[in-house]
Amino acid sequence: MTVLLAAVLVIHAGVVGVLTANLISFWRDRHRALPTDLPRVSVLVPARNEEENLQVLLPTLLSQDGLEVEIVVVDDASEDETRAVLEDHAQPNLIVVEGDGPPAGWVGKPHALYQAAKRATGDVFVFLDADAQLRDDRALARLVGRWVHNGGDGTALTGLPRYLDRGPAALLTSLVPFAVLAALPIPLVPRTRSSSVSALNGQIWILGAGDYRRLEPHRAVKSDVLEDVMIGRFLKRSGVQLWFQNLGGEVAVTMYQSFGEAWRGFQKNAFLLAGGKPGGVATGAFVFFLLLYSLSWVVPSLLWVGGTLGLWALATLVGIKLAIDRAGRFPLWVSALAPVTLALGAALQLDSWRAHATGRVAWKGRTVG
After folding, report:
1. Which pLDDT does position 29 carry in this prediction?
2. Which pLDDT value is given to residue 297?
3. Mean pLDDT by 10 residues, the chain (369 residues)
4. Are 96 and 218 members of one domain?
């Protein structure tokens, strides 16, 4: 047990190093002067059964100032009042594309955004999920200003929004920034050509219209459930410089309203994110990731009674989670339940494996994978 806990502490020390570098990078990004001479922007939003979310998002989009913007929303064969909400917010710069679902070989979201891109006329595309919202009337100008500051054409910008999930759903949502900040060396993302050191968050990302039309990233990943991860890797392989920043001052996201909804939402991705393959194929990468994750974040909660090393392992676990939760503005009670949340992460990976292996993964009325 002593050797096991010592290994955990070594891993945690490495995570602290990565986390420190990431938080410094995020702080520097927030304190840079941004350009104000901005290109014309198209905001592209996929919407399937998003009547409630669009009532929050659309007013924040339509009130943007400081740049010329059009908004292209694809009603992806919605079965609720999504279309009525779009009609209620009708404006000359709001373009509604009527979708009829993805054709064979396509996943719904890539197809919807591919259709949106065909209608968009802006010089830069901002891809935004329907459960997002812009935090003030200059947020879009700052987002595009960050993209221009980082080089504009030939680059893509993405990052972490602020997550507004509250209640039990926040336990699982807090795993999103944890997975990024504890494992991804963010300063290396734009500085290396390796596609393995990349990250693209499909909730918010920006790419020049010319680069999009040249590369057609959604067509390149049309059948991938993890379309954002695959797009990030595809863009880096294609020579696009990828920047990952703290975008919480511009974009907020409410992913899920309940714990059950959050579990089902993450269930469709967790197995694949951990290295599994479609069809429930548990690759060596998945097994290794699950074992490493369990050693790092579950074992300390089980063996904390193992003397001083056990207490240190549990303390560093909670400290790392607390630091990331504070950066993401999660409530303190979420951090207090860090051992529970991280154990749920392991259980979620296993359940996601089961669901993919049995073909029982579905989201918004469609089978996934």
Report:
1. 86
2. 96
3. 87 97 93 89 97 97 96 95 96 95 93 97 98 97 96 97 96 97 96 90 98 98 93 96 96 96 94 91 94 94 76 94 96 96 97 92 74
4. yes
Instruction: Write the DSSP symbol of residue 347.
Output: H
Write down which residue in 253, 288, 323 finishes a domain.
253
- In the chain, what is the straight-line distance between the N-terminal and C-terminal CA atoms, in Å? 40
The Cα 75–Cα 112 span in angstroms is: 8
Look-up: residue for tokens 């941004």?
34
Cα(253)–Cα(131) distance, rounded to whole angstroms? Answer: 6
DSSP string covering 79-133: SSSHHHHHHHT--TTEEEEEE----TT--HHHHHHHHHHHH---SEEEEE-TTEE
CA distances to 200, 222, 279, 294, 298 from 368, rounded to whole Å, are: 20, 13, 10, 26, 29
Domains of the chain: total: 2
Residue 298: give the domain boundaries: 2-22+263-367
Tell me the CATH number at 44.
Answer: 3.90.550.10
Which of 227, 261, 258, 274 is closest to 363 using CA atoms? 261
Q: How much is the pLDDT for 310?
A: 82
Task: State both tokens at 46.
Answer: 């996929």
- 11 SS3 class: helix
